[in-house]
Design goal:
Layout: H1 11-18, E1 25-28, H2 35-43, E2 49-54, H3 57-69, E3 73-77, H4 83-91, E4 97-103, H5 108-112, H6 138-144, H7 147-158, H8 163-176, H9 182-193, H10 204-214, H11 217-231, E5 232-242, H12 245-260, E6 262-263, E7 275-276, E8 280-282, E9 287-288, H13 291-296, E10 304-310
Parallel strand pairs: 1-2, 1-4, 2-3, 4-5
Antiparallel strand pairs: 5-10, 6-7, 8-10, 9-10
Length: 312
């Protein structure tokens, strides 16, 4: 069963960042429960179009219900890495997007639904897949992965300082009985770490790390940023909302590098500032949720919105 209502983060700021044209083509790369998509549709005229993507079958089902109500919307079941193919299929090979929006991470309904296995506050199957019909579950991975690989995932994606101790405990426990439930893994991690941080469960970093790894979230993001650049037409906007420092680092570096272009060798006889190949222009500074939004939705506390515009 699906969990509680999902509140889209930085909704007004993201839509403003897209600088929506009434007859434009827009891509919401994370339909989720449709908050951002609905806001974009509301800003469009009758000639405007939105392509919404999601890898979660439940989100896609809700999106297709909205399609029945609004002919301007197209919904595709695909991860980020399918963005270019999906856009070309619905908009045409020659078309360009006027805006692409990414809302990264996991949604509130996914976290709240114990059967999806993303959280640990309520016991459920140890799954964590954004698309439960594809790929390896968290339980399958945790029960077969090399101990050194578990250490690497916890350190790289969770920034967990006690990764080695946790991985060793996982290896000992699974030798006796394989992991199947979120509660089993959360309890084991808590027994290793104890309650180190008030208000934060000791398994938080590890669950985040395993989820990121299972879904290849950072790899999908890196691939999709390049594809977004390909489908955007000159003047089109790229807007990305991230919730984790690793995600934001990738987005910040991508936008910065595309805005800088390639530095040419000194003394080369070229006009200008010695750089070529800039594809993006940064739009404003990074935007964070204000105090009222954080009070309404604590998930917004870590959100960062970055916007850039496609150059000719």
């Amino acid at each position: 069963m699906t969990g509680g209502l999902h509140q889209p983060v930085l909704l007004e700021e993201a839509v403003a960042g897209l600088a929506i044209k009434s007859d434009g083509w827009y891509v919401d790369a994370t339909f989720g429960r449709g908050g951002h998509t609905r806001a974009i549709l509301a800003a469009l005229g009758s000639a405007g179009r939105v392509l919404a993507l999601d890898r979660d079958p439940e989100a896609v089902a809700q999106g297709r219900q909205l399609m029945l109500e609004d002919a301007r919307l197209y919904v595709e079941h695909t991860p980020f890495s399918g963005l270019r193919t999906a856009f070309r299929a619905v908009a045409g090979e020659a078309a360009g997007a006027d805006g692409v929006l990414f809302d990264l991470g996991v949604s509130s309904p996914q976290l709240d639904d114990a059967e999806r296995g993303f959280g640990f506050l309520r016991d459920g199957p140890l799954d964590m897949r954004m698309d439960p019909s594809r790929g390896e579950s968290a339980a399958a991975w945790i029960n077969r992965a090399e101990e050194s690989d578990i250490v690497a995932v916890l350190r790289e994606y969770g920034e967990e300082r006690q990764a080695r101790r946790i991985a060793a405990a996982i290896a000992r426990r699974r030798a006796e009985r394989p992991f199947a439930r979120t509660g089993e893994l959360a309890d084991l991690i808590a027994s290793v770490l104890g309650r180190r941080e008030p208000g934060k469960h000791p398994a938080t970093r590890s669950f985040q790390a395993i989820r990121i790894s299972i879904n290849n979230e950072l790899g999908e993001l890196q691939e999709a940023l390049g594809q977004a650049l390909e489908v955007l037409r000159p003047g089109g906007r790229l807007a990305v909302i991230s919730f984790h420092s690793l995600e934001d680092r990738i987005v910040k570096r991508f936008m910065r590098d595309q805005a800088r272009g390639v530095e040419l060798p000194r003394n080369l006889p070229v006009m200008g500032d010695g750089r070529r190949g800039q594809t993006l222009k940064l739009v404003g500074k990074a935007v964070r949720a204000g105090t009222p939004e954080v009070a309404r939705n604590p998930r917004a506390r870590s959100a960062v919105l970055r916007v850039a515009e496609r150059l000719a």
